[in-house]
Amino acid sequence: MRFLNNRVKAKLRSNKSVLGSWLNLPSLEVTEIMARSGFEFLVIDQEHGTMNFETAQKMAMVIEGYGAAPFIRVSENDPVIIKRAMETGVYGIIVPMINSKEDAQKAIASMRYAPEGIRGVGLSRGQGYGLEFEKYKQWYKKNMVLVAQIEHIDAINNLEEILSLKDIDATIIGPYDLSASLGYPGEFDRKEVINAINKYVTICKKHKVPVGMHVVPADAQLVNKRMAQGFNFLVFSLDMIFLASKIKDEMELLKKYVGKN
């Protein structure tokens, strides 16, 4: 780990726009392709899929080597899981299912050493393999990003209290789980889902906290649409979707060409 200044955190704290993407495939080659593409941060997903900590750490090394900020979305809001994720040397943690102020306080405490928090002390890549613990203690306080994932209607209803905590750098909507919590999984055009997202945007702007969204389809026009709505912490699609959608589109074209011969 090189203890670089986290430019993503600086931009989030200034409420500027930040663009990243998502990694579900446990592949260093795919990670490198994505890291070379110009994203400001890449999120290694450990909530869904088969990603383990050993692979996640190697992926974080690749991402950092190309000048992007490596993040991990942890599997749950658990102190041991958050501690282990941070020890890989990532620059940010996304915590799913932050539905209350108490959930957010738990995530904050899990990221901080005593006396501010409950994080256990260990030595790994994050701490310079045991040689730079003191340096790491100063670095993470200024550079580590905490993103609260808002993906349940309870979180929307409790958002004012959640955002009263100043240690949250950004929030991000989980559109599929949010729609599911309303009884309409994946039905983003439902008025109930639209109203919940609009309420989320309004409250975030009131508290001057970056407004986040994971735009899952590999369609830049949808990202532009969200930017026009005021979203400024944007995750554009993910490795699987980029790969699968490109193959699908090109195969459909190829079938048309083959049919003409």
Q: SSE string, helix = H, strand = E?
A: HEHEHEHEHHEHHEHHEHEH
Helix content: 40-55%
Describe the global form.
globular
Number of helices: 12
Give a brief rundown of this model:
By secondary structure, the chain is an alpha/beta fold. The chain has helices spanning 7-13, 28-35, 53-65, 79-87, 101-111, 133-143, 153-157, 159-162, 175-181, 191-207, 220-228, 239-260; strands at residues 18-23, 41-45, 69-73, 92-95, 145-150, 170-173, 212-215, 233-238. It has one domain (7-260): TIM Barrel (Alpha-Beta Barrel).
Labels describing this entry:
single chain; 261 residues; alpha/beta; TIM Barrel; 47% helix; 15% strand; globular
Explain what the structure shows.
With 261 residues, the chain is α/β, with parallel strands linked by helices. It has a single domain, classed as TIM Barrel (Alpha-Beta Barrel), CATH 3.20.20.60. 47% of the residues lie in helices and 15% in strands. Helix 3 links the parallel strand 2 and strand 3. Helix 2 (28-35) runs parallel beside helix 3 (53-65). The termini are far apart. 40% of the residues are buried. The model has no long low-confidence stretch (mean pLDDT 96).
